[in-house]
Design brief:
mainly alpha, Endonuclease Iii, domain 2, two-stranded antiparallel sheet
Length: 227
């Protein structure tokens, strides 16, 4: 069991230093060529792997190009085009509705504010943060996905449980210039080492500062359950 640094700001600084070195090319893994494609990809990525989303979007983006294309597509047709994605029927509805609003209320352009984005169907704060950061170069928050949620709790950076509360907690301790990369580093580390089930603590660059390290630790702080 590792020992986290105190205060939390020091723990965050140490974690960032090590992960920047471990993953120097960390960035978003979704494929897109414009803001609309980014928005569609992020909506599809909820509870689905980026690898699967990229595969589906390769064909999807050749078929549909504008907000009107998506908005006017029959529900059954769009759902069929994304049927290997989790919750594809609901996501098809979200995409059609969001694109109709983009076409009718935003002159066909993906909005560039948190409030306008989160008014679109299927777009919560996490999705909006991704679109703002990578589509508009606007960084006003931290994207909290399942990797960020899991690893920040394991590292005792936060004790909050919901993504919204975790984000607000992280904004107080993560330097603003690192807000965007913080998420990418956590995602890369979560995929490579700190997996949800059976993390590879023996090969983890953060083991000595991680109180959830399972070699002689009792509890996974992400879940609160015993290893």
């Amino acid at each position: 069991m590792g020992t986290p640094l105190e205060p939390r700001e020091e723990q965050v600084e140490e974690v960032l230093d090590r992960l920047y070195e471990e993953y120097p090319d960390s960035t978003i893994s979704l494929n897109y060529s414009n803001r609309l494609e980014l928005l569609i990809a992020v909506i599809l990525s909820a509870q689905c792997t980026d690898e699967r989303v990229n595969k589906v979007c390769a064909d999807l983006f050749e078929t549909y190009e504008t907000p009107e294309d998506y908005a006017n597509a029959p529900q059954e047709e769009l759902a069929e085009a994304i049927n290997s994605i989790t919750y594809y029927n609901n996501k098809a509805k979200y995409i059609r509705s969001a694109c109709a609003d983009i076409a009718e209320q935003h002159d066909g352009e993906v909005p560039d504010t948190m409030s306008e984005l989160t008014e679109l169907a299927g777009v919560g704060r996490k999705t909006a943060n991704v679109v703002l950061q990578h589509g508009h170069d606007v960084v006003e928050g931290i994207v909290v996905d399942t990797h960020v949620q899991r690893i920040t709790r394991r590292l005792a950076i936060t004790e909050e449980e919901s993504p919204k509360k975790i984000e607000q907690d992280l904004l107080d301790v993560v330097p603003e210039e690192d807000w965007q990369q913080f998420t990418h580093l956590m995602i890369d580390h979560g995929r490579a080492t700190c997996t949800a089930i059976n993390p590879d603590c023996g090969d983890c660059v953060l083991a000595d500062v991680c109180p959830s390290e399972k070699a002689d630790g009792d509890v996974d702080l992400a879940s609160g359950e015993a290893w």
